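SUBJECT: A protein chain and its fold
Encoding: whole-number codes for local backbone shapes
Chain under study, with its fold:
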Amino acid sequence: MLESIRGTLALLDQRSRRILCLLVLVQIALAFLDMFGVLLFGMVAALAASAISGEEPAMIGDLLTRLGLDQADEISLAVTLAVIAGVIFVGKSVTSFFLIRRAYRFLANRQAIVSSSLASRILSRPLLDVQGDPVKRPHTRLSKGPMRQLSACWAAPSSSPQK
């Protein structure tokens, strides 16, 4: 997998590599927002359970003391944390939507640039060399090859491999 990513990055210029790395880092940061939202909902569940039972678990009590929230009402604190977690999830989803849209536009543009570069390399070679090429269809190399390479690089950190 690392060789595939290295090969893909070698197809891109320095600026495009930086942009792609930035997109991947932002995608990772958005995944951490998911984790933080789940943590907040876990605290909401723990606070709600402690409010219903009347007993406060030691771990929740310690955390509330560290945050300076030990005097706050458990129900209002649980509602506030639930609203904050909801805002985090909605904000993450909206940001992720726009990020993925921009990323696919970026990758499509880079795919066109890479395909154009490969086409000029193939067309500048003698015809006998192109006919003797082990790849049966040079158009596959020009169209699907860059798309698979760039898509695999973007999809690797966040989802399963493309078919």
About this structure: Confidence is low (pLDDT under 50) at residues 158-163. The longest helix spans residues 74-124. The CA atoms of residues 30 and 92 lie 6 Å apart. The radius of gyration is 25 Å.
